């Protein structure tokens, strides 16, 4: 039955014109992604999309591509990709191109061979509030640029912040910011359900992604980086209720080693009422960012938990000697 439905869907697609099959204005439409790119190793397998390394045909520069299946038929006006593909900032990974096929959307961006934020925390020799404040400043710079161009991240998780080394200095870069600006309301609902704690209260009330919802997510991210835990626990329904009620506690043992300025910064980001929540510009002026007023105590317990949950997996290439041995074995088998 499933095979018949797949054949029917394929037949319906063949009967549609390219413009009817196109979901994103300004995208490159091809029959197969492999007509213009060579797919390489799988980087990440997700519930809603997969990420691969890739290269343009006859080119050596490595890119990363997020492969998103089209579910159903497009029922909303075309999303325009031009405002997203034109972004260029030191704290953003450059989005190179959006490619469409009849059944998939491919978001092609620069590939950075570096750890994500959580992995970087695990590598840090001595982990303190200073490190988080320093990282947060770079995140704010990227968000400021995006918000000035009416682009919102929508998935500000530690895994979507990667570290690039530039002249022996760590530069934080935001990745995966295109998806929330191009996806439908149904896809937004999927994102919300996948990471309930990151869901800003206004999203639960039916509002779209905004600069304010990015700031809520930054608050959740900083909360986690400081304590290795999230502020809301329980079933998804209970988490959503706590978010809407603003039930956040800062009196647990996890906060004993956090400065008053650190608590203030997080609490002002996690305001239920949008007008009370810090904007990017207000966040730059907060003492925890501007004056760097924080405790020098190490956050070793939080660091250990984050490192354990987000290990670095080192890619290994075949040893030439091993490769030769395998070839010899094949020759022997053929004999």
UniProtKB/TrEMBL annotation:
<dbReference type="GO" id="GO:0004672">
    <property type="term" value="F:protein kinase activity"/>
</dbReference>
<feature type="region of interest" description="Disordered">
    <location>
        <begin position="315"/>
        <end position="335"/>
    </location>
</feature>
<dbReference type="InterPro" id="IPR000719">
    <property type="entry name" value="Prot_kinase_dom"/>
</dbReference>
<dbReference type="Pfam" id="PF00069">
    <property type="entry name" value="Pkinase"/>
</dbReference>
<protein>
    <recommendedName>
        <fullName>Protein kinase domain-containing protein</fullName>
    </recommendedName>
</protein>
<feature type="compositionally biased region" description="Acidic residues">
    <location>
        <begin position="324"/>
        <end position="335"/>
    </location>
</feature>
<feature type="domain" description="Protein kinase">
    <location>
        <begin position="37"/>
        <end position="289"/>
    </location>
</feature>
<dbReference type="GO" id="GO:0005524">
    <property type="term" value="F:ATP binding"/>
</dbReference>
<dbReference type="InterPro" id="IPR011009">
    <property type="entry name" value="Kinase-like_dom_sf"/>
</dbReference>
């Amino acid at each position: 039955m499933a095979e018949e439905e797949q054949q029917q869907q394929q037949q319906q697609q063949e009967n549609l014109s390219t413009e009817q099959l196109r979901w994103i204005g300004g995208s490159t439409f091809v029959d197969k992604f492999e007509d213009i790119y060579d797919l390489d190793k799988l980087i990440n397998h997700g519930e809603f999309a997969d990420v691969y390394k890739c290269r343009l045909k006859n080119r050596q520069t490595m890119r990363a591509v997020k492969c998103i299946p089209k579910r159903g038929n497009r029922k909303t006006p075309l999303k325009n990709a031009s405002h997203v593909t034109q972004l260029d900032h030191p704290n953003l990974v450059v989005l190179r191109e959006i490619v469409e096929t009849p059944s998939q959307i491919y978001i092609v961006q620069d590939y950075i061979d570096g750890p994500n934020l959580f992995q970087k925390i695990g590598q840090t020799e001595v982990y303190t509030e200073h490190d988080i404040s320093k990282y947060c400043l770079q995140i704010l710079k990227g968000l400021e640029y995006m918000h000035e161009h009416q682009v919102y991240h929508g998935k500000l998780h530690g895994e979507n912040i990667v570290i690039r080394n530039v002249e022996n200095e760590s530069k934080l870069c935001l990745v995966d910011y295109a998806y929330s600006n191009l996806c439908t309301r149904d896809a937004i609902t999927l994102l919300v359900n996948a990471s309930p704690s990151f869901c800003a209260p206004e999203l639960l009330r039916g509002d779209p992604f905004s600069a304010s919802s990015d700031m809520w997510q930054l608050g959740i991210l900083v909360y986690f980086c400081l304590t290795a835990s999230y502020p809301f626990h329980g079933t998804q329904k209970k988490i959503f209720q706590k978010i809407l009620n603003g039930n956040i506690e800062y009196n647990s043992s996890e906060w004993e080693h956090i400065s008053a300025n650190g608590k203030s910064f997080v609490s002002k980001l996690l305001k239920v009422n949008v007008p009370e929540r810090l904007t990017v510009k207000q966040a730059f002026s907060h003492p925890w960012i501007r004056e760097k007023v924080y405790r020098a105590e190490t956050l070793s317990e939080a660091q250990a938990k984050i490192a354990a949950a987000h290990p670095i997996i080192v890619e290994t290439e075949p040893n030439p000697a091993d490769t030769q041995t395998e070839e010899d074995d094949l020759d022997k088998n053929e004999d």
